[in-house]
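Try this one yourself first.
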């Protein structure tokens, strides 16, 4: 049963989500600038990144401007207006004067946006986007901004003084100020106050707490005494009130949840902060506790409150104006229009594509389940760009080639199996589609953060958009919620995908067939050839024998023809690469269209758009050539439309755990057998090794063992632990003693294993099953690694991708096992020493991996000394809960049978969850080595236990990371070691029977 505290925390989070899940959206929309300024967020982000380089405080300053704007007559950029004869600037209100800052950066953002999209984006929306980007760039959540605000023509200093919360406010006063503007006085108040997790404050804003709180002549009694002394030194009485210090004493420049932990230990800097936790009986204290222990809950709540605050009384429609300079109202509202001829076609494009069908997709699909998904994918992509400048073009091509075959369902990512005819081998993809490894990395990163939530189809969609944005092109709000197909269709890929040799008629037919239009969509999406490369084989026919004429393509520029002939001589290497865009090959811009006009389109399918006589695509090429904004706008519209082709949603399809294969493939064993028969003499890739033993064991020996022995999962993960701690993960723990072979001193008889290590027969069965399918391929060390992951997952815990490729050791070392393996009797210092000795860290790894004691059993002999004579005192362990002590003394009487078993986890003994940590908090840890993590005074492991107790997701994520790290200890790879054919003996000792010493083992845990 989960602890009461966990249930209360969960209830609070649910209450908040229900309270705030549907903020009124006025007339705001995430798509407001999709046609008029689609790249606005990227423009603002780039200015902000540059500002961060010289001013780490700028993120906190900008979010404060947004807060202080919205609290005064709504989010209308009134705070940005300077004094004039008619404007009484809010900058000089008490809460802003000499503290509000960042105006110059907002000016820079406005100037950059005006260059790209003159007269379109309001200063109020710039502040809104800047606030979100400031949070995201500082490590916090990212969210989809609702946009469409307009700017006020006035300011109100008096209202700013009345409405804005002050640093000296009591909780009652804070609650009033939030209610007065339309925010709630509990969840919104606590969540938005959490923005004080980064930034600085001046001494004058808190110095009264240090010397004369509430005119008492004494300091604030809720202020931590150590922090009080530090602050008194920094801000002496009568000193300089402008001196700055960190709002968050722990991680001052990161957006995280440490602010709430600071409140719990009375280290809130401002009175208004500490009031949230220290006001007796306050309903805000429970919310602080939830956010302190659960960063995901804080992030989710913060996003909801930011969206709600951003919707306070916005000016929309014809209200207000779009300022040209954020510091002053416009003197003339007339804005110059485009030339009529160009505008006509641009308007036609906008009308043609402004409202693509959205099926059941939504920009908010992952807002609660994986709010940071775009940032995660962007991070992987940015790293990939460092070593492969082509990757952006490759990923957008994968998305195209996916959507053109039965819709955007990630079918292009599936590998061949007995039931899957992979689209990777269709003619338009074979030897040219690439980027699959980067998608794998994105999927792994997303699964680590949000397991089993985000589809591969949506990852492709986001990766395509981010590839464009990171290459200088537009950014847009992705509609999400696709699910993954369970099949692929190579035949349809060959039929549907456009070819580089297609005529315009053929291209138009291909687009119409899938549901796209054959003019605007065709030209806009072809514009993705503004970056990337193509192989000679895809255009060489144009150079020598176009349409079997024996002559080159007459639409190809003569100079360009000669350059290409040198690069791609007749009969030469067809795999040689050249740039699709000869002008700016790695930038997403509109130069592709100028190339077409100059007859420098590389592929026939490109040049056809401009050189086909009388084609309706020619005018569109010309508009895009002259007007990059028009191209970007149309490209975004067409990408959204293409991304909405026949998506699987709701209960259709699945969320693949590995983008290369469908979940639970029942033909996996046959597939693996065939793979082994055809490749056993070759070195198999790690992915091939991983894909099948995992499922094979799940279906056969492992599943059978699990059904007949509920303890087997805990036993198998313990074998993996005890293997890796002794000379690394090499299967040495599985080796039996062998007569006349002194190199094998079986670790099974070390103190930590003798009469307790078990599960060897199940490992034997797994090995036999694998040897039958794939003789001599899969190591015993890898079997243990996979069995551990499956043990955890089958018991309700996390799943992770197991890195594979270990080989088996040829020796065992009982002495080292005695030295290295942690024991149930160890103090925290000894445990820390054992972890650091093998290369693991002595805090997070130690606590996370100890969490494996959330299932399984232990014998009385491993904890009985705690019951009667702890540390030779003649008394029980004082850290042992009295009720549990009495129960255990009955089960394990002094001098009784030391082999009697009891549960390691009192609450859910066979489930892998986080109740183990709640047990430690209640002094119900069974083993001394467990309880030491929580009961050792001042230990750095205590806050980790607290976090894992209240946040199962945090435990699961840390456990997976630590398991992967442990699984990487001192590996044998390549030609080191061997692949044992029998896990109990090295190959040189090819004995037909087991060692007689087997019979002396007694299985206990």
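Now uncover the answer:
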């Amino acid at each position: 049963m989960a602890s009461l505290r966990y249930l209360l925390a969960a209830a609070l989070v649910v209450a908040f989500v229900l309270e705030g899940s549907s903020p009124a959206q006025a007339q705001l929309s995430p798509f407001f600038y999709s046609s008029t300024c689609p790249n606005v967020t990227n423009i603002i982000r780039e200015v902000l990144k540059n500002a961060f380089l010289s001013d780490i405080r700028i993120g906190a300053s900008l979010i404060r401007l947004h807060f202080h704007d919205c609290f005064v007559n709504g989010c209308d950029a009134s705070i940005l207006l300077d004094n004039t004869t008619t404007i009484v600037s809010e900058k000089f209100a008490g809460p802003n004067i000499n503290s509000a800052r960042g105006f110059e950066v907002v000016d820079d953002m406005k100037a950059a946006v005006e260059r790209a999209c003159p007269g379109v984006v309001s200063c109020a929306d710039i502040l809104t986007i800047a606030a979100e980007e400031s949070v995201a760039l500082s490590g916090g959540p990212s969210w989809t901004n609702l946009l469409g605000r307009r700017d006020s023509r006035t300011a109100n200093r008096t209202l700013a003084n009345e409405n804005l919360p002050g640093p000296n406010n009591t909780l009652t006063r804070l609650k009033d100020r939030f209610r007065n503007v339309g925010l709630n006085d509990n969840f919104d108040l606590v969540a938005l106050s959490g923005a004080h997790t980064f930034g600085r404050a001046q001494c004058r804003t808190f110095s009264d707490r240090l010397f004369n709180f509430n005119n008492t002549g004494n300091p604030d009694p809720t202020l931590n005494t150590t922090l009080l002394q530090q602050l008194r030194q920094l801000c002496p009485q009568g000193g300089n009130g402008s001196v700055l210090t960190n709002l968050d004493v722990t991680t001052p420049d990161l957006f995280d949840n440490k602010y709430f932990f600071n409140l719990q230990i009375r280290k809130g800097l401002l009175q208004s902060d500490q009031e949230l936790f220290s006001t007796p009986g306050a309903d805000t204290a429970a919310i602080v506790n939830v956010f302190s222990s659960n960063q995901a809950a804080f992030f989710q709540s913060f996003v909801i409150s930011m969206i709600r605050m951003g919707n306070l009384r916005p000016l929309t429609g014809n209200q207000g104006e779009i300022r040209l300079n954020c510091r002053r109202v416009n003197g003339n509202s007339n804005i110059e229009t485009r030339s009529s001829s160009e505008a006509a076609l641009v308007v036609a494009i906008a009308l043609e594509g402004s409202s693509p069908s959205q099926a059941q997709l939504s920009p908010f699909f992952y807002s609660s389940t994986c709010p940071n998904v775009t940032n995660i994918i962007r991070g992987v992509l940015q790293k990939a760009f460092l070593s492969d400048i082509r990757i952006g073009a490759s990923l957008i091509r994968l998305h195209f080639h996916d959507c053109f075959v039965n819709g955007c369902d990630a079918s292009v990512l599936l590998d061949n199996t007995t039931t899957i005819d992979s689209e990777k081998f269709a003619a338009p993809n074979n030897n040219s589609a690439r980027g699959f490894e980067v998608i794998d990395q994105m999927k792994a990163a997303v699964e680590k953060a949000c397991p089993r939530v985000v589809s591969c189809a949506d990852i492709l969609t986001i990766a395509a958009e981010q590839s464009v944005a990171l290459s200088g092109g537009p950014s847009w709000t992705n509609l999400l919620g696709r699910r993954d197909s369970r099949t692929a269709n190579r035949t349809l890929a060959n039929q549907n995908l456009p070819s580089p040799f297609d005529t315009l008629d053929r291209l138009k037919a291909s687009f119409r067939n899938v549901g796209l239009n054959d003019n605007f969509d065709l030209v806009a999406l072809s514009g993705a050839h503004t970056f990337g490369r193509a192989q000679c084989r895809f255009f060489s026919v144009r150079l020598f024998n176009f349409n079997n004429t024996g002559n080159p393509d007459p639409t190809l520029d003569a100079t360009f023809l000669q350059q290409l002939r040198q690069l791609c001589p007749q009969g030469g290497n067809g795999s040689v690469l050249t740039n699709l865009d000869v002008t700016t090959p790695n930038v997403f811009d509109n130069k592709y269209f100028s190339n077409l006009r100059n007859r420098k389109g590389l592929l026939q399918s490109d040049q056809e758009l401009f050189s086909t006589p009388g084609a309706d695509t020619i005018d569109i090429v010309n508009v895009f050539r002259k007007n990059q904004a028009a191209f970007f706008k149309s490209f975004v519209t067409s990408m959204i439309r293409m991304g909405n082709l026949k998506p699987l949603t709701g209960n259709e399809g699945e969320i693949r755990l590995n983008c290369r294969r469908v979940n639970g493939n029942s033909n996996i064993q046959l597939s693996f057998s065939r793979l082994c028969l055809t490749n056993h003499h070759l070195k198999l890739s790690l992915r091939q090794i991983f894909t099948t033993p995992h499922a094979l064991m799940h279906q056969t020996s492992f599943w059978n063992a699990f059904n007949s022995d509920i303890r087997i999962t805990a036993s198998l993960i313990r074998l993996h632990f005890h293997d890796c701690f002794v000379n690394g993960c090499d299967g040495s723990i599985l080796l039996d003693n062998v007569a006349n072979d002194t190199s094998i001193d079986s670790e099974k008889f070390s103190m930590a294993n003798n009469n307790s290590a078990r599960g060897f027969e199940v490992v034997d069965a797994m090995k036999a099953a694998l040897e039958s399918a794939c003789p001599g391929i899969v190591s015993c060390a890898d079997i243990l690694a996979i069995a551990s992951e499956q043990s955890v997952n089958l018991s309700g815990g996390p799943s992770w991708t197991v890195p594979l490729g270990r080989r088996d050791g040829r020796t065992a070392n009982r002495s080292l096992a005695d030295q290295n393996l942690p024991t149930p009797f160890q103090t925290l210092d000894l445990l820390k020493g054992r972890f650091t000795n093998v290369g693991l860290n002595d805090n997070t790894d130690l606590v996370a991996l100890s969490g494996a004691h959330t299932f399984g059993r232990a014998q009385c002999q491993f904890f009985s000394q705690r019951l009667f004579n702890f540390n030779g005192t003649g008394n029980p362990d004082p850290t042992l809960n009295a009720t549990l002590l009495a129960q255990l003394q009955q089960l394990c009487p002094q001098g009784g049978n030391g082999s009697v078993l009891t549960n390691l986890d009192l609450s859910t003994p066979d489930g892998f969850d986080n109740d183990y940590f709640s047990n430690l908090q209640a002094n119900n840890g069974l083993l001394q080595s467990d309880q030491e993590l929580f009961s050792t005074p001042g230990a750095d492991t205590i806050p980790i236990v607290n976090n894992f107790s209240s946040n199962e997701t945090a435990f699961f994520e840390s456990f997976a990371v630590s398991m992967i790290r442990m699984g990487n200890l001192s590996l044998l790879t390549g030609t080191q070691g061997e692949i044992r054919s029998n896990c109990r003996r090295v190959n040189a000792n090819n004995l037909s029977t087991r060692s007689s010493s087997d019979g002396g083992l007694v299985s206990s845990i």
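Discussion: The CA atoms of residues 542 and 549 lie 10 Å apart. The chain has five domains: 24-161, 165-310, 498-639, 683-817+974-998, 822-966.
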